[in-house]
Amino acid sequence: MSFEEMWAELLPVGRDAATGGYHRFAWTPPELECRAWFADEARRRGLGLEHDPNGNMVAWWYPEDGTRTGAVLTGSHLDSVPGGGAFDGPLGIVSAFAAVDLLRERGVRPARPIGIGAFAEEEGARFGVACLGSRLLAGAIDPARARGLTDADGHTFAEVVHNAGLDPHAIGPDEDLLGRIACYVELHVEQGRALEEPVGVASAIVPHGRWRFDFAGEGNHAGTTGLPDRRDPMLPFAHMVIAAREAAERNGTVATVGKVRVEPNGVNAIPSAVTAWLDARGPADDAVRRTVLEVDEAARIAARPHRVSVDLAEESYTEIVDFNLALRDRVRSVLGGVPVLPTGAGHDAGVLSARLPAAMLFVRNPTGVSHAPEEFAEPADRLAGVEALAAVLDDLARG
Ligand code: GLV
Ligand code: MN
Ligand code: MN
């Protein structure tokens, strides 16, 4: 099965026919279909399929001598953001299967296991915390907190993984699996316009996080409630959105309010509550922290005259990730000095880099758009990515 054949199989899964955007949220039917596709691809190649306790999957190509340790792991994720593109995540997984095929065609016999990982809930689109599967694996989130995370329908992570056949009490760091992996190399579509060549290597992931603002006021009638009598949480929320843009400009960061929930969300009702999520990222921790503090302060000042309360909760935060220099240099030497670039996007490779050497390959994105249907990589660049990944895996799996 060629890259393009695999790609074509996955392409319709979870795609909204009207917008072309993908809705593949962890353990929902489209994502389960992607998981089944992954298992089929593993089976078709005779790869051993491992399910870890956290909903992550690994397809293993083991050396003939039965070596199980010192593995080289590649892969990415199958889930998407709401209305996301086709490439963010799946490109890394399809490329990984294609790279294994290429190595086999060339008669390569790896001395170390090569694994293809599919990490659960990378986007955090269902339970709010990005890279949840890799965070659990790496011990970067308290399992008790993860169990209690809820989706938009109020289902807890514990319930959902239980229904998926996992034991919610077994989630958490998997030292056995981590101990078998020597390094992780994730191939990913570039998510901006920074890469002008077909393939590049990541230097760093900038600090980034997610914060939830809860504005609570009083629900009331839109026609009969005079302006002085209102406690309308929509007003400080509106200030907060503008404040995020202004704070980002002052601090040299980026800040986004991309998700909002309004209660009860009626045209003719003053809302009782507004919940808004702030995504903030920037070159340094202090700039990101200052951005959030300034937004919080602006929200509170705006809320006071309307007698609205404001609560701020940090849902996730990832400090700067500087990818392992030795691994990056080795990857670059295999690829012949391709560009090195940082990214403002989060990845499982960033989370795992706290526990093992990790590296990333980026594949050029001519639209520069990501988390939207226009996300793209040209067929020739996809193949360049597969060649690059194959070369890197071949080198790293030699011993
Ligand atoms: C994931 O792609 C993120 O950066 O939010
Ligand atoms: Mn993404
Ligand atoms: Mn991704």
TrEMBL record:
Residues that, per the record, bind allantoate: 210, 268, 281
Domain of life: Bacteria
Cofactor requirement: Zn(2+)
Keywords linked to the UniProt accession: Hydrolase, Metal-binding, Zinc
InterPro entries: Amidase_Cbmase, Bact_exopeptidase_dim_dom, Peptidase_M20
Enzyme superclass (EC): hydrolase
Positions of Zn(2+) 2 binding: 88, 123, 371
Family note: Belongs to the peptidase M20 family.
Protein name as catalogued: N-carbamoyl-L-amino-acid hydrolase
